[in-house]
Amino acid sequence: MGLLDDLVGGGQQRQDFQGFVNRYDQGAPWTGISDQEAVSRYQQVATRLSPDMYQQSAEEAFGRMAPQERMEFARHLQQRSRQQELDFPDFNQDGIDDRYQDPRMLAQVTSRMEQQQPGMLGQLLGGGGGGGGSAPVTC
Fold first, then answer.
1. Which of 14, 24, 61, 86 has the CB geometry, 3.0–4.6 Å to 81, for a possible disulfide?
2. Mean pLDDT across the chain
3. HEC string of the chain?
4. Domain ranges of the chain
């Protein structure tokens, strides 16, 4: 059994998730996936992954994005973090950290954030404009 089976079992929910995975695999991570669906799937899956699996999945998802898209995503998370008075690392304190172009670095940071404050990224992505258009989500 694969990860999808472990997460959702069978029936209609499995078919729904499989449809999501198929659309995700067809192109850019946001093609054919609404912001609302991306956030919903993220929230359903993220809490059920081990820290290692979460980081691996995040790295794979970020790897599908162009370096500039990863930077934009990191900026979006930083902006949303400030609005909600949450901490998003800015390693060199200049508001723009080029290391977020690296999918591994971005996955490490988002994984650490999710471990320290479970649900934080879902909260940041779920409020006003995050999700499918800018946020990678994997199963």
1. 86
2. 75
3. CCHHHHHHCCHHHHHHHHHHHHHHHCCCCCCCCCHHHHHHHHHHHHCCCCHHHHHHHHHHHHHCCCHHHHHHHHHHHHHHHHHCCCCCCCCCCCCCCHHHHCHHHHHHHHHHHHHHCCCHHHHHHHCCCCCCCCCCCCC
4. 11-126
